[in-house]
């Protein structure tokens, strides 16, 4: 019939398709596969996050702005991330996301997480570019 779908890879292990495993067990394995992909995608984010605690402070110790009289202590560089999050989360949750919802643009949680990871990657690339520029100027 047109409603009969060809079984996917793991479906062949189900009893109804001639396999030896119950439906719930096969569905649990499929869900586990999805979770593994999600957690594997989080590894680069956490590598970057924990790098921030050491590299940003070390980078701040070596930066000197001769043209500016305003000086930020190097230890404060790690605080800016927390301050940014304290400000950004209410703005996104109360202003941006409701406005997008009213316009018919609904972002799932995975899309929101992906956008956040994209911005964290851009922040790290910016810090890396600044560090490269600083090292060239130092040499």
UniProtKB/TrEMBL annotation:
Its main location: membrane. It is found in: Membrane. The chain crosses the membrane at residues 32-52, 72-97, 109-130. It is a multi-pass membrane protein. InterPro entries: MFS_trans_sf, POT_fam. One of its GO terms (cellular component) is membrane. Keywords: Membrane, Peptide transport, Protein transport, Transmembrane, Transmembrane helix, Transport. The keyword RNA-binding does not apply. One of its GO terms (biological process) is peptide transport. Gene3D superfamilies: MFS general substrate transporter like domains (1.20.1250.20). Belongs to the major facilitator superfamily. Proton-dependent oligopeptide transporter (POT/PTR) (TC 2.A.17) family. PANTHER family: OLIGOPEPTIDE TRANSPORTER-RELATED. This is MFS transporter. It comes from Meganyctiphanes norvegica (Northern krill).
């Amino acid at each position: 019939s047109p409603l009969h779908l060809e079984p996917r890879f793991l479906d062949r292990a189900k009893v109804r398709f001639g396999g030896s495993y119950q439906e719930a067990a096969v569905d649990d394995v499929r869900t586990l596969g999805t979770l593994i992909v999600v957690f594997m995608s989080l590894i680069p984010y956490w590598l970057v996050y924990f790098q921030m605690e050491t590299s940003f402070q070390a980078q701040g110790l070596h930066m000197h702005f001769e043209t500016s009289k305003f000086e930020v202590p190097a230890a404060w560089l790690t605080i800016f991330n927390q301050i940014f999050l304290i400000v950004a989360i209410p703005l996104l949750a109360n202003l941006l996301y409701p406005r997008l919802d009213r316009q018919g643009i609904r972002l799932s949680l995975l899309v929101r997480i992906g956008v956040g990871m994209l911005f964290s990657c851009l922040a790290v690339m910016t810090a890396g570019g600044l560090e490269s520029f600083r090292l060239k100027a130092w040499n």
